[in-house]
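Final report, Chapter 2: Outcomes

The project's central promise was a pipeline that accepts a single protein chain and returns its three-dimensional structure in a standardized token representation, suitable for archiving and comparison. That pipeline is now operational. To close this chapter, we reproduce one record exactly as it appears in the project archive, with the input sequence first and the structure output second.
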Amino acid sequence: ELLRLGASVLKVQQQLLQLAPTPAAQADAIASVVGTRVTLAAKALSASVLISRLWGVKDCAQLVAQARSLSEVGSEGAAQLAERIALSLTAQEIPALILGDLAHEEVIMRATPLFSLLLQTRRLDEPTLRLLWSACATKSTAVSKQAASLLCEILRHRACPDELQTALLDAVGAACADGASEGLAGLLNSLAESVYRQRTSPDAERFALMLWRLLALPPKSVSAPTRASLEATLVLLLHAAPHERRLQGVLAAARPL
């Protein structure tokens, strides 16, 4: 039923677009059905049937692509359309539906345009970021891997503000204060390999210090497999670090000896 309703809304949109003589008018035509399309997508993403959830995220991604196409041709209404889509995505809690109890790797894989739009319109907030990194640490292996890939895409995005990067490290650091699970260790490895290994910023320094702090915890707080993963992640960072930082790492590791 949802898919039939969605097809009907798309048909109405297509008819409106045929009557729109300019890119600005086309943006208005799409904007007129944004609320309906995102509402239907939210219902689809709440369904237990995977094909419905895939349709929901795909339709939202198509909306984002249409807004981007209008922006590329310089449409006057493109920015307002993007804002309207982002507002609807947050109002219908689309990120929470994608990353919640029904999270699936195929759905998350198709959600990158949605999160990129939220980032570019400054609507990707700390609670949404927490949902994302929590999914990396607590979901199944396939979901965790895809969520980590999405998180790394966000952190590498040129529109990602410094305060969001800092908020992530604060949240993950707090979660790791008394120890780390294998899921969190896997997330830290993904962040090191895809994001922080290539940086020399203060956030990269903080990330490395967090690894050192975790490795200094007593054995009862960090299992042997998790500790091995953390050690491999730290070595990965040190391989790409400046000579002075590598030397500091060697001295710190040798101090207990």
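Archive annotation: The mean pLDDT is 88.
This record, like all others produced under the grant, will remain available to the consortium after the project formally closes.
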